[in-house]
Specification:
By secondary structure, the protein is an alpha/beta fold. The chain is built from 37 helices and 16 strands. Strands 1, 2, 3, 4, 5, 6, 7 and 8 form an eight-stranded mixed sheet that branches. Helix 24 packs across helix 25, helix 30 runs antiparallel to helix 31 and helix 33 runs parallel beside helix 35. The chain is globular and about 90 Å long.
Length: 888
């Protein structure tokens, strides 16, 4: 009888990749999935404090079998591991293509493990694999919008999960398991999309058709309030409408009083979270700013762009016209079980372009207006949200202050409830003030509320903005002077949110003091830190802060604060831009105002992160600078944004900012700045394939730089004009511009420009059939680029080099040049030139007789050009059609 080691009690974990062998996954996808799976497991086990290296693990092709050491607490498997796995899976999926994304089934058990010369033998192991194959368990993950489903054995649930509150045992559901010879009960849960505690059975939507990994599932709902109370009738109406909906008619929430602060958003978000599981394809959310401090509601186009981005539609593919954007949006969401929450709508006209066309979607709209026309035309149902009842308002104060404190002063609480008129916002702010002073009796607050009769009467009269203003004034007067000052200055800031450094610049104070006063404002519920280090206002709070600034800050002080904020964005953006495009000629900045708090930028990745975080704010402050007469900022901020917007394919935003820059430069009378802005606008129009407009702006730029005698800028402009001509097939004209630019660059001692001009000269010679001359020029340009470390110019030189070899019939050398160029542009994230190179590479493959390789390469180019919505996609389709490889 073979020797058998003593059995050991081990925790057993088995994971299996959903849809691993699906036909849409080619071998490279399978390799990427397996590689990602092991990275996810190592990371998750480490984050859960389970030593991966100490575990026994065995590869199962589409999954992994793991035995955890007996000294590792089983509670870690129940509590920390599922959350860590879900987080690691989401991180992996966000960085990979649809075919490389992973959704996992996870089975957990524990038992005696026997070892022999061949491995392990155990009935416990057999049971774990049977749990993994349970049809109900597979269906649960297929129906889930999440990335992970867990099944625990009955033993593991009873002995571990049930005794561990941190593992949320109330979210587990029992399922029957009948697989082969095994019949048992397992306990299932969805760690990243748990069933609400107390529900019976699995969610009723578990039976929807199985979804393969791939589509992004947006979950944009804001966090719901932990202090939500009451609203049982309104919640019931919404749920009834959902239960009885047969046509997907939108649900409208409307406050009859038309006021902010009555709780429309809180109600909508709370209900949406309660019912999120019934919308497995996602939940979209947008604040339409219909009634806000600026008086400027959100336009439908940016909202649609945000929704399309949430489904992974690249910005470059989104059309410019609103009707085309709406059509694309409705096409993307068609057939999806989707919830759309449109918050704070101005009117029906603002909402209509945002309504899906599919009856599988449900829309919840909040507005101060009744939106009766939506009910008449689109069949919307109206729900009125009134003030909280006395009982609900008292419960809300108890949530904030604690039941003991509320019970101790019933008369004072009744006064506070009456004075706040049942408005949740007013109640929350009053409660925050009382909570900030736990040693003060609530009667003190009640007496102060009584003393503001002129404003409190407005609270009862329905002028709710005045009532909120009064309540905000009570909290404002309790602030320390530094916090009060930064609060009102934040009301001047034009962006959607503000960073620590920007706030410090507004107030001209140091970072430690800024951090302290922002913490004070956050604790008083006067600002919200919605992401680490970034702060924003509720719309009424922003309006109130701006009013306080108007009352308490002189016009000179307001202007100085905004000037410092704009300087912060300009100078930090300049530092970030230098990391993105070091070889670019810098602009000259004026000295920043004293008190500006600079944000250090340490490298390329940091620069990209900063631009990504500040993207929306930079666009807002640029627009504000143009409107408010900060003309220098209005042309220089677009300059710093250009490399980021170009890399991101945000060419329409690039064009819009440059149009502002041209107007600002003209108001300044700065001819050089106007020429630079005109040239940049011509460049972006060339990117967009709008060559006639590009030529017009570049011609204007050329006239200005020749007038002022700026030879370097003339060379830049001629070079860009040459590229426009080359794209249009006007090769002789392009060569003339390029040669003129080359002479100017050499005369002014500008080696970076010289490489760009040489790139274009070489390519034009090749286009004109002067191949030996082209080869010499491109070789010279390539060497100069590499000497200078100019990778952008190196790309163009390699394109010219490859094209010339192609024309000479040197197919091996041409392929080599193009492949080198591809490596560079992919490192830089330059998608347009990647497509250009792929087209050339496909041409070379075809000339060499490799038809299949040519078609495959052109398909890659076509995919990129389609994403960019570029007209050159047509030429690639013609190539594919002629080669018999056109895609559907």
């Amino acid at each position: 009888m073979p020797y058998q080691r003593p059995a050991v009690h081990r925790t057993i974990v088995v994971v299996d990749v959903e849809g691993f062998g699906n036909p849409h996954r080619a071998n490279p996808h399978l390799v990427a999935v397996r590689d990602g799976l092991y990275r996810v497991l190592r990371q998750a086990f480490s984050n859960a404090s389970i030593p991966w290296a100490s575990c026994d693990h065995e590869d199962r092709g589409d999954g992994v079998f793991v035995l955890i050491p007996p000294d590792v607490p089983k509670s870690l498997v129940a509590e920390a591991l599922p959350r860590a796995l879900a987080a690691a899976l989401r991180a992996h999926n966000s960085a990979h293509t649809a075919a490389e994304r992973i959704r996992l089934r996870l089975a957990v058990h524990a038992g005696e493990i026997s070892y022999d010369d061949h491995g392990v033998a155990s009935t416990a192991v057999n049971l774990t694999f049977r749990l993994l194959e349970a049809p109900a368990f597979k269906d649960l993950l297929a129906a889930s919008p999440g990335v992970l489903a867990l099944i625990a054995s009955g033993w593991f649930f009873d002995e571990v999960v049930r005794h561990s509150p941190a593992s949320t045992p109330a979210t587990y559901r029992p399922v029957a398991v009948t697989v082969k010879e095994t019949t048992t009960v397992g306990w299932v849960c969805l760690p990243d999309h748990p069933c609400p505690p107390g529900d019976v059975g699995v969610p009723r939507d578990v039976g929807i058709p199985r979804r393969e990994p791939g589509p992004l599932v947006p979950r944009q709902l804001p966090a719901h309030s932990p202090h939500f109370v009451g609203r049982a009738a309104e919640l019931g109406q919404l749920t009834t409408l959902l239960d009885t909906a047969t046509s997907g008619s939108p649900v409208v929430i409307s406050a009859v009083s038309g006021t902010a602060g009555i709780g429309k958003t809180t109600l909508a978000v709370h209900w949406a979270h309660q019912n999120a599981a019934r919308f497995p394809d996602g939940q979209l959310y947008a604040d339409l700013r219909g009634f806000g401090p600026t008086g400027t509601p959100a336009q439908p186009a940016p909202v649609i762009q945000g929704f399309l981005g949430a489904f992974g539609v690249p910005a470059e593919r989104i059309p410019t016209r609103l009707d085309a954007q709406t059509a694309l949006y409705r096409s993307v969401v068609a057939g999806r079980r989707l919830l759309v929450v449109l918050d704070n709508a101005r009117d029906a006209a603002q909402v209509r372009p945002l309504l899906p066309g599919s009856d599988s979607c449900l829309v919840v709209i909040t507005s101060r207006s009744e939106l009766a026309s939506l009910a008449a035309r689109e069949g919307a149902r109206l729900i009125t949200v009134d003030a909280l009842t006395r009982q609900e308002a008292t419960a809300l104060l108890a949530r904030h202050l604690g039941q003991e404190r509320v019970t101790a002063e019933p008369d004072a609480i009744a006064t506070v409830v009456d004075c706040c008129a049942g408005m949740p916002l007013a109640l929350a702010i009053a409660a925050a003030r009382a909570a900030a002073n736990p040693g003060f009796p609530i009667a003190t607050l009640a007496d102060e509320l009584r003393g503001e009769q002129d404003r409190l009467d407005a609270l009862d009269a329905g002028d709710q903005v005045m009532s909120v203003r009064a309540v905000l004034s009570w909290s404002y007067r309790a602030l320390t002077p530094p916090a009060a000052r930064i609060f009102r200055l934040l009301g001047l800031h034009p962006g959607p949110d503000v960073s620590l450094h920007a706030a410090a610049s507004l107030a001209s104070i140091g970072l430690p003091q800024t951090r302290a006063v922002l913490a004070e404002l956050t604790q008083a519920h006067l600002v919200e830190q919605h992401t680490p280090g970034r702060y924003r206002f509720h719309d009424l709070l922003r309006a109130y802060a701006a009013e306080r600034a108007a009352w308490e800050e002189t016009a000179r002080h307001q202007h100085a604060a905004l000037h410092r904020a704009l300087d912060f964005y300009l100078y930090t953006g300049f530092a970030a831009e230098r990391h993105l495009y070091r070889r670019r000629d810098p602009i000259v900045l004026a000295t920043p105002r004293p008190g500006v708090s600079m944000r250090p930028i340490t490298g390329y990745e940091h620069a990209m992160d900063w631009f990504t975080a500040e993207h929306a704010t930079l666009l807002a402050v640029t627009s504000y600078a143009a409107r408010a007469g900060f003309h220098r900022h209005a042309w220089q901020l677009p300059w710093i944004l250009t490399p980021f917007l170009d890399r991101q394919g945000q060419w329409h935003q690039w064009a819009a900012t440059r149009q502002d820059a041209i107007r600002a430069a003209r108001r300044l009378g700065d001819r050089a700045a106007e020429a630079q802005a005109q040239r940049s606008l011509g460049c972006v129009y060339q990117r967009l394939g709008r060559y006639t407009e590009a030529s017009a702006h570049l011609t204007q730029a050329l006239a200005i730089v020749r007038e002022i005698g700026d030879h370097t800028s003339e060379a830049h402009t001629r070079c860009t004009l040459g590229w426009v001509c080359e794209r249009q097939g006007r090769f002789a004209e392009a060569l003339t511009h390029a040669q003129h630019a080359l002479r100017l660059y050499r005369a002014t001692g500008h080696p970076t420009g010289e490489t760009r001009a040489l790139d274009l000269v070489g390519l034009c010679h090749a286009r004109l059939g002067r191949l030996q001359e082209a080869l010499a020029r491109c070789g010279h340009a390539l060497q100069l680029c590499r000497d200078l470390g100019d990778r952008e110019a190196e790309t163009l030189a390699l394109i010219g080099h490859g094209y010339t070899h192609h024309r000479l019939g040197h197919h091996v050398q041409a392929v080599s040049s193009y492949q080198q160029a591809l490596t560079v542009v992919r490192d830089l994230g330059d998608h347009y030139h990647e497509a250009v190179i792929l087209v050339h590479l496909g041409d070379t493959h075809r000339a060499a007789g490799a038809r299949s390789a040519a078609c495959e390469t052109w398909q890659q180019a076509l995919a990129i050009l389609d994403q960019l919505d570029h007209p050159e996609a047509h030429d690639v389709r013609v190539r594919l059609t002629q080669a018999g490889g056109d895609r559907p």
